[in-house]
Amino acid sequence: MFDANDIFDSYASDAEVTRFVSWRPYKDKSEVAPFLQLRLARWDSGEEYSWAITRSQEDRVIGMIACRVRDHAADIGYVLSRNYWNRGYIIEAAKAIVDWASRLEFIYRVWAVCDVENKASARVLEKVGMQREGILRRYIVHPNVSPEPRDCFVYSKIR
Ligand SMILES: CC(C)(COP(=O)(O)OP(=O)(O)OC[C@H]1O[C@@H](n2cnc3c(N)ncnc32)[C@H](O)[C@@H]1OP(=O)(O)O)[C@@H](O)C(=O)NCCC(=O)NCCS
Asked: Domains in the chain, please, with CATH?
């Protein structure tokens, strides 16, 4: 319950943080528990692994990073409270997850997409060692920007 409160307060209800994600900012704390239950179910099924991000010595969720596994590929996504942007936390977290996924014997491709206007996220993906493959045109709806599907950069690291 404490985690749900932190998630709601620190980023899930923030319209700026959620600008380039596929979901609307939460309006009520009660929306967080079903979201967390889904994360746990997907962890158990091996479909997707999600980790809460905390600062050392502080038991408070300030962000989340997830890795979805499909056959020989794993894709990552992340979100961080605006209060902690530009401190390198996501680069640190994403490096750890990309390294972890890359070491799995059956994974040959670790990848991610980001909106072509999401400059911070594109920079993060470059800094974790991914290469930009190109643009997936009209790939995903980011409803907080537009109801129409948006162009996204696709990045990957392969072996
Ligand atoms: C994407 C996000 C996680 C990045 O968090 P962050 O705390 O800024 O990340 P870091 O500090 O670890 O690294 C950001 C890098 O991007 C750069 N950056 C940040 N904002 C930028 C901008 N507007 N234009 C260009 N570069 C930018 C930073 O300078 C840094 O690069 P550097 O280390 O070379 O200086 C954060 O902005 C966020 O939560 N955004 C909302 C959710 C989101 O968009 N998630 C990704 C969906 S694909």
From this structure: 2-158 (3.40.630.30)
Tens-level pLDDT at each residue, the chain (159 residues): 679 999 999 999 999 999 999 999 999 999 999 999 999 999 999 999 999 999 999 999 999 999 999 999 999 999 999 999 999 999 999 999 999 999 999 999 999 999 999 999 999 999 999 999 999 999 999 999 999 999 999 999 999
* Dihedral over alpha carbons 45, 81, 19, 14 (to 10 degrees): 100
How far away, in angstroms, is 147 Cα from ligand 1 center? Answer: 24
Q: What is the pTM for the complete model shown? A: 0.96
Are 49 and 120 in contact by the 8 Å Cβ rule? The answer is no
Ligand 1 pocket list (CB less than 6 A):
17, 20-21, 77-80, 85-91, 114, 118-121, 123-124, 127
